[in-house]
Amino acid sequence: MKMDRRSFLAGTAATLTVPGMTGKVYAQEKIVRFSFPQDFTKIYTFVTSEYSQGQRDYITLVNERGGIGGYKIVADVSDHANDLPRAIEAYERGKREGMVLIDPLSTPVARALVPRALEDKINLITAFSGRSDAADGTVFPYVLPLSINYWTQAALIIENFSKMEKGDLKGKKIVFVHIDTPFGKEPLPILEVLAKRLGFTLIPFPYTPPGNDQSAIWPQVRRAQPDFVIFWGAGVGQTVALTEAFRNGLKMDRVSSSVWLSESDMDVVGRANAKGVMKVEPCVGGREPKVIKDILSDVVGKGKGAGPEGKVGTAYYNYGVQMASLMVEGVRMAVQKAPNGPVTGPWLNEGLTSIKDFTAEGMLPPTTVTKADHQGGGMGRIAQWDGNKFVPITNWYTAFQDVVWDEIRKYAEEFKKTGK
Amino acid sequence: MDIMLIAELVLNGVFVGLMYALVSLGIVLIYKTSGLVNLAQGALAMTGAYITWVIGAYFGVPIWLSIPAAVVLMFFGGVLIERSALRRMIGQPVIMAIMLTLGIEIALRGLLPGVFGAAVKKLDIGVSPAPLFLGDILINQSIMIGGVVSLALILASLAFFNSRYGIVMRAVADDQTASWSVGIRVEKAIAVAWGLAAVSATGAGILWGATQGVDWSLSLLLIKALAIAILGGLDSIPGVILAGLIVGVAESLATGLIDPVVKASTRDIVASVIILATLLFKPHGLFGHEHIERV
């Protein structure tokens, strides 16, 4: 953690104090500029450090191998602290410096940047955050989640529950414990539709953010005698939820969450206590994927890693690698289409929306991004904590995309009409 | 409504309320001696928990030793805050000193996660998380032990105020000028109050940290602590206990009874309503003393 923060601070200091430096270094080279203003110090702290480390390590790997078609990737990292004025300042700074892609990793920041990105034609990446309806590329051409949105994640969880019950959830009781914020409430419309379609009873329990005290929630969950529990939060809300689930004697192998669950959360809950809990996996975890092995040997092994080696291969680190690999694949496709650029937002957008069956050498589910589908196909899988690591218990799959896309189109249409 | 659920919620609320009350104790201690409302109390609780974790994680010290070490460090940390920051505010409007404590709150909330990492950290004080049932009622061991320890510490502080030095501090609280005139070192008494407030914050931070993990969100305990201090009366230690119980039980019952009706979380609203209602209808709280000034 020490090294991680030091390297982050050093990188940020370099970026902030010598704003022209990166430009000068690459003045003679062809570059593609990404901007990564993210929340290192306030709300998204539980994920940002590892996610950013994964992104930077992957980009280092690509650059060390000569870049993409002669282009080097420049990643400007800064801290917006989930603060909208700071994020907008970082966006405008990035725009001045020629960024063609921005990844703020924050729902409120992403939502605030949507109108600017659409107007400026800068690719706004909203992985695991932002608006779920941004999957509709016809309405949001420059907003790209490139990952399974929360509606798809909820659908994947329900499909898995259904498989566990041999395809029949009729009469079952599913409790949804969620943080009482727009993010926490987001899966509710999908869950309500699926409850009607599949015949299960949905019981939601909202908790006050950030969720550090849920002691009055979980006795109610226990007394509801649910067949399954979905818990939906982030950071301390997740660890407290799991701890309370265990304290209340719930069966952990009937408890599932979104992508926001990591190894470090299991350390807080107690690795053995959390055994059996399930989560949605958007990419392969651990150090087995070839990309991660390459990073370990060619980046970390050569002392060029962006953070502590111990974090390489954690869930959130791999999410960072996943997203960076998709961004770089977008560059590769853009170079294929127009090798001489010019490097602009629309140039990269052409590349990003041409990604086809990309797996990053087996690390991702087959991902296809089109001008209409910015989610990438909506595939994920379920992994289960075995007391030491998350082990996949399903193959890559997608579920209830008709329901999910009904919702996507409904909200996208609303945005088109009202701008909200 | 299931009567056993209500009983369980009340029991949870009692223990949680006592844990809140321990945070609130620090606010009362400082107000009693210096007339200041310490808005840094939540961040002090977070700091105490972080320091306890750091001593264990970085130096490999066992928890039974890192707790007293953190308590001692935080006592001197509290004294240092008074000596280096608050004492400079003497002669300035009270609001400036209160704003200074708010500044300390914000600084600590940013500094510690920045230095030690913002991810949630496990603070294991040896309490089993395994479920413990009393009939149909779940006893949450973590908050039960937290509540009992909190009550013991609050009672200990009551006993302290009946000791020789406690009487000195009460004299300072009563009339600083008169205390000066009889040779009491008022500044020292106020510094000790800050030290003790930091100690109570550390106790609360450790107990809450063991329950939820250690991260910045521990500083949010300030809101509950303020609600309790205001309801109990800002200068009343017994008031802290009763108000803690009221706030804890009210929050817990609101979660069980109101949330399902309004389909939203009302837990934090309870504290806000208590603050507003107390200030409107009983500004000095349940046990607070009304100060009458002769003009």
Description:
The complex is a heterodimer of chains A (420) and B (295). Chain A folds into two domains: 214 residues, 3-Layer(aba) Sandwich (Rossmann fold), CATH 3.40.50.2300; 170 residues, 3-Layer(aba) Sandwich (Rossmann fold). Helices cover 44% and strands 14% of the residues of chain A. Chain A is built from 15 helices and twelve strands. Chain A has a seven-stranded mixed sheet with strand order 7-6-8-9-10-11-12, with helices on both faces. The two termini of chain A are 39 Å apart. The N terminus of chain A is likely disordered. Chain B has one domain: ABC transporter involved in vitamin B12 uptake, BtuC. Classes of the chains: A alpha/beta (420), B mainly alpha (295). Chains A and B meet through helix 3, strand 7, helix 9, helix 10 and helix 11 of A and helix 1, helix 4, helix 5, helix 8 and helix 10 of B.
How would the blueprint of this fold be written?
The complex is a heterodimer of chains A (420) and B (295).
Chain A: H1 2-17, H2 21-25, E1 30-38, H3 45-64, E2 71-79, H4 84-96, E3 101-102, H5 107-120, E4 123-125, E5 143-144, H6 150-164, E6 173-179, H7 182-185, H8 188-198, E7 201-207, H9 218-223, E8 228-232, H10 236-247, E9 255-257, H11 263-269, E10 278-281, H12 290-300, H13 315-337, H14 345-352, E11 381-385, E12 390-392, H15 401-418
Parallel strand pairs in A: 1-2, 1-3, 3-4, 4-5, 6-7, 6-8, 8-9, 9-10
Antiparallel strand pairs in A: 10-11, 11-12
Helix pairs in contact in A: 3-12, 3-13, 4-5, 6-8, 10-11, 13-14
Chain B: H1 3-34, H2 41-59, H3 63-84, H4 94-116, E1 132-134, E2 137-139, H5 141-160, H6 164-174, H7 176-181, H8 186-212, H9 221-232, H10 237-262, H11 267-281
Antiparallel strand pairs in B: 1-2
Helix pairs in contact in B: 1-5, 1-6, 1-8, 1-9, 1-10, 2-3, 2-4, 2-8, 2-9, 3-8, 5-8, 5-10, 6-8, 9-10, 9-11, 10-11
